[in-house]
């Protein structure tokens, strides 16, 4: 069920996406005296959250999890204990999560946003298109469970916007590509009409995400900055993820520019991005074809015929290796945590036995 729910105490949450299904999921928390809230921003153990009666600043009392993916982030629906010192004590199940490998290069994942319906991938037309980076962002977007939308920004600075739009479309089967300019207003109204529910902005520093967000909000609410002329990159003017309501309905989550973004358990997303290679692979003579020199390889045949760029296959292989490496590291960490847990139990039992021996 997706229609907005209008329980009087939660009426203020309807514009933030509160639904009848969420209300059902919240029932046990309401019985415990808690109130629903949506997290707008998380900052050093505190969060800004929206409740049915307005915004609050609350402490994060959610039990600590060994995996950061389980920690609260912008877009989460939560159960909040009201009072003079509000506390966020539980999270509702997420229907989508945008996850990358931790920027610290650990085996953990990092959630960029939760409960997202549309992922707007902002790509600046003021710089050459980076196909590999776009494919990487698309894999993360598809893996999340949300719908990607490529928005080419800064059309007023482009030399050939149509050519870039065509190239981006070839890299993103099943994804709409929209050319925009906040300076001239080109297609900003079209983008506004396309968005609904919860939208997150992803892209590199300098891609124009915050400027695009301000155009959608109709207000200079999000910080923007200058871009270096030599490489088209910008500084991180957005320093944390933040959820804000859109004037026409729905909400927007702005994110810091992503200079480095690694895959985390994105197998399904990769299959979606490289759907044509997956389809060709199914036609190979051998089921375990490596697409190199095997006879009857449909993938290599497509490359030889000019139907599939060799760069595309190389990018697919690179991202598959990266994803497999991240999965292997995660498996090793989980095994290590289980081993440490078992060791802790053993230490506790030994201490208990020693105590009993001293008492006897």
TrEMBL record:
Superkingdom: Bacteria
Keywords: Cytoplasm, GTP-binding, Hydrolase, Metal-binding, Nucleotide-binding, Ribosome biogenesis, RNA-binding, rRNA-binding, Zinc
EC code(s) of this entry: 3.6.1.-
Cofactors demanded by this protein: Zn(2+)
Protein family according to the UniProt entry: Belongs to the TRAFAC class YlqF/YawG GTPase family. RsgA subfamily.
Known function: One of several proteins that assist in the late maturation steps of the functional core of the 30S ribosomal subunit. Helps release RbfA from mature subunits. May play a role in the assembly of ribosomal proteins into the subunit. Circularly permuted GTPase that catalyzes slow GTP hydrolysis, GTPase activity is stimulated by the 30S ribosomal subunit.
Protein's UniProt name: Small ribosomal subunit biogenesis GTPase RsgA
């Amino acid at each position: 069920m997706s229609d907005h729910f209008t329980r009087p105490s939660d009426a203020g949450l309807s514009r933030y996406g509160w639904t009848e299904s969420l209300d059902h999921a919240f029932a046990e928390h309401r019985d415990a005296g808690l109130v629903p809230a949506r997290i707008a921003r998380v900052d050093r153990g505190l969060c800004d959250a929206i409740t049915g009666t307005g915004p609050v600043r609350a402490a994060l009392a959610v039990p600590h999890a060994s995996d950061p993916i389980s920690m609260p982030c912008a877009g989460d629906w939560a159960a909040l204990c009201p009072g003079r010192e509000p506390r966020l004590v539980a999270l509702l199940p997420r229907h989508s999560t945008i996850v990358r490998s931790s920027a610290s290069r650990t085996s953990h994942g990092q959630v960029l946003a939760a409960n997202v319906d549309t992922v707007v991938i902002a790509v600046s037309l003021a710089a050459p298109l980076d196909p590999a980076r776009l494919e990487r962002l698309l894999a993360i977007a598809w893996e999340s469970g949300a719908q990607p939308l490529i928005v080419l920004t800064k059309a007023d600075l482009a030399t050939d916007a149509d050519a870039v739009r065509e190239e981006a479309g070839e890299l993103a089967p099943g994804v709409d590509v929209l050319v925009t300019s906040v300076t001239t207003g080109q297609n900003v109204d079209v983008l506004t009409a396309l968005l609904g529910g919860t939208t997150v902005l992803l892209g590199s520093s300098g891609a124009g995400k915050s400027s695009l967000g301000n155009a959608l909000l109709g207000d200079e609410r999000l910080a923007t900055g200058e871009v270096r002329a030599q490489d088209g990159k910008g500084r991180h003017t957005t320093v944390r993820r933040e959820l804000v309501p859109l004037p026409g309905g729905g909400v927007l989550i702005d994110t810091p520019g992503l200079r480095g973004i690694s895959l985390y358990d994105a197998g399904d997303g990769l299959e979606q991005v490289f759907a044509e290679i997956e389809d060709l692979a199914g036609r190979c003579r051998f089921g375990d074809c490596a697409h190199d020199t095997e006879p009857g390889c449909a993938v290599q045949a497509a490359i030889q015929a000019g139907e599939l760029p060799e760069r595309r296959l190389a990018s697919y292989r690179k991202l598959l290796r990266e994803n497999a490496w991240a999965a292997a590291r995660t498996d090793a960490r989980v095994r290590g945590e289980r081993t440490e847990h078992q060791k802790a139990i053993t230490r506790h039992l030994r201490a208990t036995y020693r105590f009993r021996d001293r008492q006897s």
